[in-house]
């Protein structure tokens, strides 16, 4: 079986003991065969040998010997009785055959991830700090809130060491040292494992576990036990708003989570601020005491200081009575500035924040019943003091069929290279939904799983893997970066709580290959000054060797990083911490430049990072530049040309590096700038760039007012190495892509010309003003051709009539100088 928490393992052990009664051997029996096991180690060594763990020889356990990482892995895997036969291969290339299964199982259980993606460092000696992390994860030990008395425990080990001390697994090597970097001894490790296995945490009193603000209006209160929800007899159930006050004011709503252990609390007033008093009064739990009375949580209070820096997300889309409703994860304070339905811009007057401010409504009359429609939204912001902008949304809205009593698919949002979120019209009973994904003649079975983070129960998650080497890459054929599938739901795939069953439903979903490499978001010296941290915009896998990270001081002297202390943050795989001072010692005052080579990291889809160079100053004077540049964007005088100016913290223009000329640092409507885009500094001051889109790259926006689009600026650095905070800016674009002829069809004397987009024909337009028409190489004249007209029901097609049946098929081309025939945005066809 796969790895299970300790409580599960003890249940299985108890069941086995009940089924087969056998004499229990005294603990010292196993240890007695070794000559190097003193009394204080006997029970621990016997515990390990009972699990099949051998000594260093037939007569010695090696009690005082150091342990290699590979041997420690075997000890942990067997002590936990992990399923070593069915764990997938770890991918490590340096594990001897004798321990491959155990290392596979440890990685599968999440106890260790090795040194790199392909190396476990089997033969290296393991330190007490590394073992602390393994044991804490293996036995799910909880850290204490008490401050550690040890002075040799850096941040990456603090949680694990605290957990071991809290569980009385160890008390350190002295009163003030844990011995984090000391090599672990086999006898001490045996004791660690025995004590961890025997540890039983003291049951916690029902209480608040944590409080965290999640936006400008809401906090989430987590409890250590299940709560009673929406009770008709209790006055303090979890949904009672009087249970929660902020500076003496009751909440306006309280929503209990599905697992009944957390409550999302909404306040009318702003949650942002300093030194606010949050009080959680006693809340009824699902537990009763021996007399049958409901047990309440203890009263809780906290001083809350919070600044909202988290942007809302789109939860779902729906359509009714000609209106699209977009549901967000929190209240919206600024309506979207750019909305397009099926590629057509929506006027600002048709976009509004609803009375329920978590929703935005979009007037979009005329969408056909049962149709799937593309929806693009940008520019919405929340209600924070410094408003956070919602990420660009590229998704769909599905118009329900006339039978509204049945559950239906309301929307599909692509969330990643191989993932999507499906929103239903109502909650249903099942935790999974079976569906089929079709591309051409190939049909694959897929399963959608319920999104447990959505309290409405209406969203399900789709993850597609078509047997590619990396998750999701089997979707894309050859060099393709975009593939569209049909997503099919059989009749009765959805069943609501009253037994209504869905009709058969088919929609499309387009997956776009993730080709974006992990991008640096920020870099900083940690508060204890022992390390520098690089934060990226997505989870990382480490490919490179720490030996290739270059650190130089202000004198140009190279400093080697400490390999054992340079790693991904244990709780956040988006952060890589670089240490070039051994142990918990702070970095000496000075200026340091750190360069991480290209390809050192990769994301889930194998995209490799660019080289990163950052300068840090430790113990600096206050004049040192640590302020991130701020981008301001405006439309230049020429169409489809944008001016991007960079400012410092005082509002003055400042010079930026050549990163400002990197097209990869700009996106338009969430996509890379089109090939051929020109970017240049406007002066030698290097504080402003212009971005000029090439002809044929824009197909929205008329020639008068244009259409709104969103330019995203990221990863631009100033001379001091400070990277700008990613920001979105509304710009105006105008169509610069001419309609072109797709086909010419002759039916008798009628000639039909079809374009690749809608075209507009002015009244009484001479066909030969727009076209050159020849028959057998002879140009026709005005007497040979009628006026040009639109074709009813097909805005992409125009028609003219010949006065006589042609002797051969006419050849029709657009006159290069014509200006009368234009596309819907006023661009002359070509």
UniProtKB/TrEMBL annotation:
Q: What keywords does the record list, in alphabetical order?
A: Signal
On whether Signal is a keyword of this UniProt record, the answer is yes
InterPro entries linked: Cu-Rt/internalin_Ig-like (IPR014755), SLH_dom (IPR001119), TAT_signal (IPR006311)
What Gene3D superfamilies does the entry give? Answer: 2.60.40.1220
The answer to whether the entry has keyword Transferase is no
Domain called SLH: residue spans: 86-149
Signal peptide region? 1-31
Output the Pfam families linked to this UniProt entry: SLH (PF00395)
Q: What is this protein identified as?
A: S-layer homology domain-containing protein
């Amino acid at each position: 079986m796969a790895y299970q928490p300790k409580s599960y393992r003890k249940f299985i052990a108890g069941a086995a003991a009940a089924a087969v009664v056998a004499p229990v051997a005294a603990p010292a029996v196993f240890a007695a065969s070794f000559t190097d096991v003193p009394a204080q180690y006997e029970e621990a060594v016997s515990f390990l040998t009972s699990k099949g763990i051998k000594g260093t020889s037939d007569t010695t356990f090696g009690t005082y010997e150091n342990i290699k990482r590979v041997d420690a892995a075997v000890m942990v895997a067997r002590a936990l009785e992990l399923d070593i036969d069915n764990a997938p291969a770890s991918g490590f290339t340096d594990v001897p055959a004798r321990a491959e299964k155990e290392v596979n199982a440890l990685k599968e259980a999440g106890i260790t991830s090795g040194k790199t993606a392909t190396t476990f460092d089997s033969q290296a000696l393991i330190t007490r700090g590394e073992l602390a992390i393994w044991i804490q994860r293996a036995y799910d030990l909880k850290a204490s809130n008490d401050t550690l008395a040890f002075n040799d425990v850096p941040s990456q080990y603090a949680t694990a060491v605290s957990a071991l001390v809290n569980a009385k697994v160890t008390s350190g090597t002295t009163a003030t040292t844990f011995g984090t970097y000391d090599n672990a001894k086999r006898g001490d490790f045996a004791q660690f494992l025995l004590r961890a296995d025997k540890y039983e945490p003291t049951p916690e009193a029902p209480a608040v576990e944590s409080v965290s603000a999640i936006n400008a209006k809401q906090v989430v209160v987590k409890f250590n036990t299940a709560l009673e929800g929406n009770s008709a007899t209790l006055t303090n159930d979890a949904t009672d708003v009087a249970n929660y006050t902020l500076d003496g004011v009751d909440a306006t709503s309280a929503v209990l989570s599905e697992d009944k252990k957390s409550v999302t609390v909404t306040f009318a007033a702003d949650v942002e601020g300093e030194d606010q008093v949050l009080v959680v009064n006693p809340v009824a739990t699902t537990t009763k005491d021996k007399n049958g009375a409901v047990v309440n949580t203890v009263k809780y209070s906290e001083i809350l200081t919070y600044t909202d820096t988290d942007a809302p997300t789109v939860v779902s889309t729906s359509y009714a009575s000609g209106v699209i409703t977009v549901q967000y994860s929190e209240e919206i304070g600024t309506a979207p500035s750019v909305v397009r339905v099926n590629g057509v811009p929506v006027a600002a007057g048709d976009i509004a924040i609803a009375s329920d401010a978590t929703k935005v409504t979009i007037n979009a009359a005329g969408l056909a019943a049962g149709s799937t429609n593309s929806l693009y939204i940008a520019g919405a912001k929340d209600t924070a003091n410094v408003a956070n902008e919602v990420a660009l949304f590229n998704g769909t809205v599905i118009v329900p069929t006339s039978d509204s009593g049945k559950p239906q698919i309301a929307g599909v949002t692509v969330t990643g290279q191989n993932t999507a979120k499906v929103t239903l019209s109502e909650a249903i009973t099942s935790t999974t939904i079976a569906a089929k994904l079709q591309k051409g003649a190939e049909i694959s079975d897929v399963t959608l799983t319920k999104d447990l983070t959505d309290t409405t129960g209406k969203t399900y998650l789709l993850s597609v893997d078509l047997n590619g080497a990396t998750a999701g890459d089997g979707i894309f054929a050859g060099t393709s970066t975009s593939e569209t599938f049909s997503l099919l739901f059989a009749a009765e795939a959805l069943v609501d709580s009253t037994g209504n069953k869905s009709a058969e439903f088919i929609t499309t979903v387009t997956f776009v290959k993730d080709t974006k490499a992990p991008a640096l978001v920020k870099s900083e010296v940690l508060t204890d000054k022992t390390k520098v941290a690089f934060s990226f915009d997505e989870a990382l896998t480490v490919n490179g060797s720490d030996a290739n990270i270059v650190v130089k001081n202000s004198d140009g002297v190279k400093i080697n990083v400490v390999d054992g202390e340079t790693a991904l943050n244990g709780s956040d795989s988006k952060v890589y911490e670089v240490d070039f001072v051994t142990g918990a010692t702070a970095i000496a005052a000075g200026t340091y430049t750190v360069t991480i080579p290209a390809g050192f990291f990769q994301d889930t889809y194998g995209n490799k990072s660019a080289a990163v160079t950052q300068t840090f100053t430790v113990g600096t004077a206050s004049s040192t530049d640590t302020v991130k540049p701020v981008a301001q964007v405006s439309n230049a005088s020429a169409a489809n040309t944008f001016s991007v100016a960079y400012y410092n913290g005082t509002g003055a223009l400042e010079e930026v590096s050549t990163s400002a000329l990197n097209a990869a640092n700009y996106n338009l409507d969430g996509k890379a700038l089109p090939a051929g885009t020109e970017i240049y500094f406007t002066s030698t001051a290097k504080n402003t760039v212009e971005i000029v889109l090439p002809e044929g790259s824009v197909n929205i926006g008329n020639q008068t007012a244009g259409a709104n689009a969103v330019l995203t600026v990221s990863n631009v650095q100033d001379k001091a190495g400070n990277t700008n905070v990613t920001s979105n800016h509304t710009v105006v674009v105008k169509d610069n892509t001419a309609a072109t002829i797709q086909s010419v069809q002759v039916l008798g004397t009628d000639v039909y010309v079809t374009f690749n987009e809608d075209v507009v024909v002015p009244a009484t337009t001479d066909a030969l003003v727009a076209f050159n028409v020849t028959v057998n190489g002879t140009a026709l004249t005005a007497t040979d051709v009628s006026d040009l007209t639109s074709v009813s029901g097909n805005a992409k097609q125009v028609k003219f009539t010949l006065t006589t049946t042609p002797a051969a098929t006419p050849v029709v081309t657009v006159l290069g100088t014509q200006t009368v025939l234009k596309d819907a945005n006023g661009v002359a066809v070509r």
